[in-house]
Amino acid sequence: MALLHNAVLRPSKQELIAAWAPGQPWFVGDAGAEVESVGSFRFDDPDGEVGVETLLVRFGTGPLLQVALTYRSAPLAGSEGLLVGTMSHSVLGDRWIYDGTGDPVYVAMVAAVALTGGHQADQFMQGDGELIPIAPTTTVLGSGAPGTPVPSLSPPNKTSPNKTAPIETEHNAGTTVTTAGALRVTVLRVVDASVPIAATTDAATLSGTWAEQPVPQLLATVEVLPS
What we know:
Blueprint: E1 2-4, E2 9-10, H1 13-20, E3 35-43, E4 51-59, E5 64-72, E6 83-89, E7 93-99, H2 104-116, E8 123-127, E9 130-134, E10 138-142, E11 167-171, E12 175-180, E13 183-188, E14 190-191, E15 204-210, E16 213-224
Parallel strand pairs: 1-8
Antiparallel strand pairs: 2-6, 3-4, 4-5, 5-7, 5-14, 6-7, 8-9, 10-15, 11-12, 12-13, 13-16, 15-16
């Protein structure tokens, strides 16, 4: 469950994306155009500490772009290169916004959803002492099956059991490929309806639908690498 707040954000998510995305290798569109939000979805951080949201946006008349973000209450050590920007949240205070494709919480969540056939988090707004459900603007579904093992990002190590595997990200034209331990996650940055969902035979997929895309569209693939 994702609990949202009726809050003022400075700068807004669109303003952060407008300043950051044009500098990325996968960016396509008019950097000076207004950012249109087409849809979004969230995943649940099991520890309840990190916000995990993916936004589908378009710069002017450009193609649809997928921007995965994580929201943190403190800087993520050693991840300065992933920082999208900082934000003042009128309820939660200062927030550090990161490119989710390099954040271990995002990588673990998108892998789990794809491999186990999961879906986006249900969203609620707090109001008058009750939780008010919020209709999703984007619905996503993993291709895997419940109970499928999901490799941990913490490799077996008796001396450092909580150590996270190194995360390597490769930004290409249209995609970001993240490798962490036994996982390889490919996020389609440019969302193209001509790309088939069955991208590879061995990869689990994450697909989504939204108002202008009623047919499931490939958003990401997740592969478990041989040990």
